[in-house]
């Protein structure tokens, strides 16, 4: 068994609870359902932006800090473009730093690999979401954030990077960082859901 296969199984098992909770979040579930409404899509996009921005920014900082090269596809700017195209404001992202202080500084390769696991793995789900958006809301709907994943090879690049740089001694750190990243998205979605509730009350 290749080391990356073992690492993949380890990360999947270690983050199963956080990953499943995120997939089942009320703001994300409609994105893969056959009766997706434009209002549900807009709410999800706004809620995802702070977490996407912060995770990408943290990964970029980690790559610089550890002096490593990685072909990172930045999707937060595409998400911002989608929001503008839909006539929505771009949410503030600074307060996400207070939600997950443990993600501020990436000092170990395991931390970086764990964050990339979530960042790049999310593109697999994005492909499914993109197809559902096009099917339910039409190809004219602004959806570059999800659609760009259909042509990306980021998942393959990630595993090549992990196999080269992440020894088994760093797997635990990778799992903790990945769990933190899943929780970051869940927290941002929770905050957005609460804000929407107050707004519509």
TrEMBL record:
SUPFAM superfamilies: Heme oxygenase-like (SSF48613). InterPro entries: Haem_Oase-like (IPR016053), Haem_Oase-like_multi-hlx (IPR016084). Pfam families: Heme_oxygenase (PF01126). It comes from the Bacteria. This is Heme oxygenase. It comes from Oceanisphaera marina.
């Amino acid at each position: 068994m290749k080391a990356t296969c073992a690492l993949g199984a380890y990360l999947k098992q270690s983050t199963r609870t956080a990953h499943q909770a995120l997939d089942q979040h009320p703001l994300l579930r409609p994105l893969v359902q056959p009766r997706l409404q434009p209002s549900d899509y807009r709410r999800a996009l706004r809620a995802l932006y702070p977490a996407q921005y912060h995770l990408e920014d943290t990964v970029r900082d980690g790559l610089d800090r550890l002096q490593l090269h990685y072909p990172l596809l930045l999707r937060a700017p595409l998400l911002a473009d989608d929001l503008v195209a839909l006539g929505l404001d771009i949410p503030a992202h600074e307060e996400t730093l207070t939600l997950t202080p443990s993600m501020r500084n990436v000092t170990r390769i395991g931390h970086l690999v764990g964050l990339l696991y979530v960042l790049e793995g999310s593109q697999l789900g994005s492909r499914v979401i993109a197809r559902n958006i096009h099917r339910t809301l039409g190809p004219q709907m602004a959806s570059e954030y999800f659609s760009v994943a259909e042509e990306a090879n980021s998942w393959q690049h990630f595993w090549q990077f992990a196999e080269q740089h992440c020894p088994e001694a760093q797997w635990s750190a990778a799992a903790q960082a990945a769990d933190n990243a899943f929780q970051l998205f869940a927290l941002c979605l929770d905050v957005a859901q609460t804000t929407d509730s107050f707004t519509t009350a």
